[in-house]
Amino acid sequence: MKELTVDAAVENIEVVTDFVNCELEQLGCPLKAQTQIDIAIDELFGNIARYAYTPDIGKATVRFAVEDEPLSVVITFIDHGVPFNPLEQAAPDVHAAAEDRPIGGLGIFLVKKSMNLVEYTYKDGQNILKIKKNIG
Hints:
Structural class: alpha+beta
Shape: globular
CATH architecture: 2-Layer Sandwich
Strand content: 25-35%
Helix content: 25-40%
CATH superfamily: Histidine kinase-like ATPase, C-terminal domain
Number of domains: 1
CATH class: Alpha Beta
Distance between the termini: 18 Å
Number of helices: 3
């Protein structure tokens, strides 16, 4: 398992994405899966950066692990911010016209649709959000 801890700030989305992509490239991850993972990082780390510690900035840890059978990557986002389970948000009405939909919720919807597993726990004062993507 590899781990990166950075300030939970929007400008660090790129740092987190680069960290994960370096590991994905070593695994020969297909481009489609890498793109889906990059979108998930943008959404999930972006939410931590924008909302977990507002108005302050705290730390966020990203863990990267590999599992076999099938080959998959597990990325875990950990912060000590305000408890928030994004999986409890109602799914957006994707059939409604864009101007009729409320802002928000589409990113988490896309993450849930594109990952093989998305789970959230709050434990010991930490938000722990784990995503898993099969790549093999």
